[in-house]
Amino acid sequence: MKDRFGGNQRRARFQALCQSLRPDLLRFAFWLSRDRALAEDVVQASMLRAWKAQDSLLDEAAAKPWFLTIIRREFARTFERKRLPCVDIDELIKSEEPSLAAAEENDLAELRAAIFKLPDEYREPLVLQVLMGYSTAEIARELNLSGPAVLTRLFRARSQLRTLCGEDLPDARNSRDAK
Amino acid sequence: MIDHDAYRRALLADPRDDSAELVEHREACAECSAYRERLLRFESRLQRALTLDMSNLQRARRPRLALAASLLLALVVAGAVWLAAPRAGLAAAVIEHVVDEPQSWSSQAPVADAALAGVLHDARMHLRAGAGEVSYASSCEFRGHVVPHLVVQSASGPVTVMVLVHEHTAAQVEFDERGYRGVIVPIAGHGSIALLMRSSEANMQDVEGVAARVRRAIVWEP
Which of A18, B41, B111, B172 has its CA 20 to 30 A from that of A74? Predict the structure, then answer.
């Protein structure tokens, strides 16, 4: 009886954890995949894996990075299982338009479309930094990169975004890549 | 001291980097200081652009990946991980109710004690001092029961509080849907309370603070 109660409690805590993190996890998966349906599939499969591996989560405070790592791996598995077709970015943006441009957020639609156009290797660290609040060291650990490599990708990501959005005309000073 | 190029490269990599060498350059260079201001404004837009409205995102189209394994596991999950459904349904119902009472957000004057006591009496409860300033109080029909619908003012704006004696939930659940962020908090033996703010001004610390104050202030009547 005690075990059953303990199990129920643990399950309830895990469910609550999943529920509270789900919006952020979906956002992360969406920006990773640029596809709502795929993001939902990946998050769902990731939560199942997380459920099975919940004993490995020793600290609830570390739950978000733990989930994000599972999602990244699940996303990679999805690519291994099935070669996803190459897509035309403009078509992709058009197809995801309801997500990208809610009525009250028209001013952000252009920026979201620009984020869509970023190469994966720039978009992912940017999302981890801006949306998930990761430090450079945490991004480096998650993506298995060096700190300077992360900074270079972040620099390039923002440079490209600002150019795409007409924020900064590329000039000698700010278009030069970090080495 | 680092040069302009190095400063801007570092800033584009991490606009919130406040390391000593960046601060030193910024304080000595008006042009780069102005550049930082522009970049921080852009950063704010970037943050908002990435924070998609989940109610749009969750309205999924037909899944493209019909993974058999996923479906099988989904059955397992129906009783486990994906148990969010009943609580998500409760959150959706609370939001639906709040959407139908837009006037609740706009009143700012404190509700008269007698009016508040009348609303709370319907739920066989009263509030001690300390719950915060209640600017709206109404006895509302919710899922077949009459419940107190309050709005409590917080530092970041009004927080809707619904005392749901008949709605039981096992654990605290946060939600973020349709432009509202909030939390459903279980109350042992007395159902739950739902608290939410409009996403545009939502500060979950304030919501949690109001939740704690209201919980402490509630006195259940026999």
Answer: B172
